[in-house]
Amino acid sequence: MAKLAVIYYSATGHTYRVAQAVEEGARAAGAQTRLRRVAELAPEAVVAANPGWKAHVAEAAGVPLAAPEDVEWADGYAFGSPTRFGVMAAALKLFFDGLGGLWGRGVMANKPAAAFTGAANPHGGQETTLHTIHNVMYHWGTVIVAPGYTDRVVYAAGGNPYGVSYQAAREGVAVAPEVLEAARYLGGRLARFAAVLTPERSRL
Ligand SMILES: Cc1cc2nc3c(=O)[nH]c(=O)nc-3n(C[C@H](O)[C@H](O)[C@H](O)COP(=O)(O)O)c2cc1C
């Protein structure tokens, strides 16, 4: 059974919902999973001043914090972050920056990896944010698993072939069900790639 880590940052909960759907899809495809959040970097006073942010920090308190050990444990990865000016959030980048030792030992090499994101606008930088996450994965030597146009659910979710992405609702409305369906699909696709690649990883 392949082991997948779904590691994300979310301030107000949208990316968390997508992360949960990716994990669901991976489990349904037979993977063992770990859902992990990266640590919040914003000062408490900043979080407290934003009701949506504060509510989500409380909501996600039970989700374990991501650690390098999760990256070592997993046979494949899904990483998610909201769009921040067209790139991933600093919190996820800081987590990546702590993985130099694992990268040096080739721990992530030849493992499949996928990305998910979202933004407030329909064209607010989703694709560039996915590329910023992919860029890190290229350096690790992971095998990028994009959805491409491999299933109808990709079109229904807006047609992003690079990864799963949402448009954030303005007032706390949930992520579109079509996007969650695409996230479950990507989780399943990642699990299937991990199942095939894992036994052969050392020969690649
Ligand atoms: C500092 C900052 C920068 C942002 N930059 C963008 C942006 O470039 N384009 C956009 O459409 N939305 C932008 N947003 C909106 C976020 O992408 C949106 O709130 C986020 O996807 C919600 O995800 P979350 O609920 O998981 O935190 C930005 C938000 C913040 C706080």
Task: Report what the structure shows.
44% of the residues lie in helices and 16% in strands. With 204 residues, it is an alpha/beta fold. It has one domain (3-203): Flavodoxin domain (Rossmann fold). Strands 1, 2, 3, 4, 5 and 6 form a six-stranded parallel β-sheet that branches. α1 links the parallel β1 and β2. α1 (14-28) packs across α9. It starts with a strand and ends in a 7-residue tail after the last helix. The model has no long low-confidence stretch (mean pLDDT 96).
Instruction: List low-confidence stretches.
Output: none
Element-by-element helix/strand order: EHEHHHEHHEHEHEH
**How many angstroms does the end-to-end distance come to?**
19 Å
> How many strands appear in the DSSP assignment?
6
- Beta-strand percent range: 15-25%
Measured as a percent range, the helix fraction is 40-55%
- Using the coordinates shown, work out and report the CATH topology: Rossmann fold
- The total number of structural domains is 1
Question: Any idea what the CATH superfamily is called?
Answer: Flavodoxin domain
* Largest sheet properties: 6 strands, parallel
Ligands: flavin mononucleotide
pLDDT averaged over residues: 96
CATH architecture: 3-Layer(aba) Sandwich
Report the top-level CATH class: Alpha Beta
